[in-house]
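Researcher: I'm comparing several assemblies side by side, and this is the next one on my list. It has 484 residues spread over two chains. Same procedure as the others: predict the full complex and return the structure.
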Amino acid sequence: MHRLKGHPEERRFLEEVIEKSGQNLLECLQCGKCTGSCPISSQTVGGPRQLIARILHNMQDAALEDPTWWYCVSCGTCANRCPVEINMYQVATALCEMAEEAAVAPCEPAIHRFEELFLKSVRKYGRVQELKTVMQFNMRSFQPFKDAKKGLQLMLKGAISPVHFIKGGAKDPRVADIFTRVEQLKQGEKAHES
Amino acid sequence: MKVSYYPGCSLEVTAKPYDTSAQQVCRSLGVELEEVPQWCCCGSSPALKMDGLLSTALSAQNLVHIEGQSVDKVVIPCPFCFRRLLSAQEEIQADQDLKTTVQNVIQAEIAGQLDIQNLLGFLRYDIGLESIREKVVQPLSGLRLLTYYGCYLVKPSGVTHYDDGEYPVSMDEVLQALGAEVLDWDFKTECCGAGLSLSKTDTVVELTRRIMREAKFKEADALVVACQLCQANLDMRQEEIGKAEDTDMAIPIIYFTQLMGLAFGLPAKQLGLNHHLIDPISLLKSKGLA
């Protein structure tokens, strides 16, 4: 196991994930309680235990292309049941940031598309315009009428307003500034590293 | 009692009934909710996944607005916002470097000493069962309810510090105080996958299917929730589940605040009970409650 006897270079990826996530993966017992509890682990999505194993073995490509952290809904069930209290959604954040930095293409484009559109809306309006984001997502996914019947039913009940599908709220430049400053900070760090 | 109120984005648009029922119930209990001025989105799961600093900074921006309100307690109905703001405050308290960075990003000083509570916990523990019981004019007798807490309100326990991550009871206690019959089951905190509702609908239909199948087996009249994501997801996906199971699946998904309002004598429509896809009104009428 690289985590025990690997060359420092072989432990670089593991150490970076630990540092970025604040989660001590070296304590992982590989007991599998996490994956057994994980709502999104399936035949095609390996789940947290396998993902940690990949990180511990310094399998950087496999870890950054693992669908588990894209699927992770941060439900916290694994963290709740983990005997050493590893918080996997913090690991997901670390891997997502590292994958972006390494320009690894998202292996789950649909999830990525939704999350990007969501943040774009927050950046522009300060508050996410939910229905507009749903509409944009369905359009870009080439399924404009997905759940349209339900949307219509809710509109007829007066539960949602058609206006919200098209029109955004008032813009909030303070929030856009936060996005910009976070970006600048990251670019500064990158420039500093290179 | 006056507290700060952070509704979050959903409660303005898709989860209006949660907001209006929460406001009315608090008014009945003598609680003044002062909405956070100029609040913004906490970034929800997309920010938490894609950018840790952005996620913490957005929450911190809201904490600063709340600190400006000169109340020491903030009440949050949305479980995700609740967990994120609480967690951000703890992260900032524990890490001085992070605090400095975040303060630079939001260009404001943050004290980080707020009492951050979710709405259910605030009503159950701060207001208390006795005060809730006193307001009941129409006991919800004859209603067989299942409580569904979802994830973000209670899990992981080390982050939320609220109730129990596997077997919470606070909502059960509130509903019992309203006179309802609360059934027991093992699915109180099983994840419904709402975050993937748009992008991975098949996964979400399967997760909600497990929950709703059990709810039907328990012969519950309705499922009671404290999360607008759970509400929308379980309400919306029953049609698909019914088709997959070849059965009628139409169990109303109701906010606990709507049932509190109903027990306090408020009209069903005023609580937005007519705004769900699976209409709870006929059920409530059959029990003489609407």
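Model: For your comparison table: The mean pLDDT of chain B is 97.
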